[in-house]
Specification:
mainly alpha, 0% strand, 127 residues, elongated, 2 domains
């Protein structure tokens, strides 16, 4: 099906080429001036070096393995806390009293008490 009119305005090549090349030259000149500024040049070099040395991949690996290393440490810490609280029932009761005094929401206080009781009861499951 033929259209009655052209949907895009056609420019003759001489007009289009002149405007495009002039705009491209202006953008290129401006970019070169900006890149010659010492601070900008330093940032560009630092970014290129970071990318050449695979900085993103190494940063992701460090983050990933740092997080993974925290899980066993937390498990051992909860187990140690469970043993301490199981052997000192007065300390456990003091913690429960402090929770009830300082937390106004009874649902949150009950949740914290249940979490602490679970840690004490499951202290031997680690290892």
């Amino acid at each position: 099906q033929d259209l009655e009119h052209e949907p895009i305005k056609q420019l003759d090549n001489s007009e289009k080429g002149g405007k495009v090349s002039q705009a491209l030259e202006t953008v290129t000149t401006t970019a070169e001036k900006v890149q010659r500024q010492p601070v900008i040049a330093h940032l560009i070099r630092a970014t290129e070096r970071f990318n050449d040395r695979l900085g993103n991949q190494f940063g992701a690996a460090i983050t990933y393995f740092s997080f993974l290393s925290m899980i066993p440490i937390l498990m051992v810490s909860f187990a140690a806390g469970g043993f301490v609280l199981a052997s000192h029932p007065m300390l456990l009761q003091d913690i429960f009293d402090k929770i009830l005094q300082n937390i106004s929401d009874p649902t949150l206080a009950a949740t914290l008490k249940n979490t602490i009781n679970t840690a004490v009861q499951q202290r031997t499951t680690v290892g």
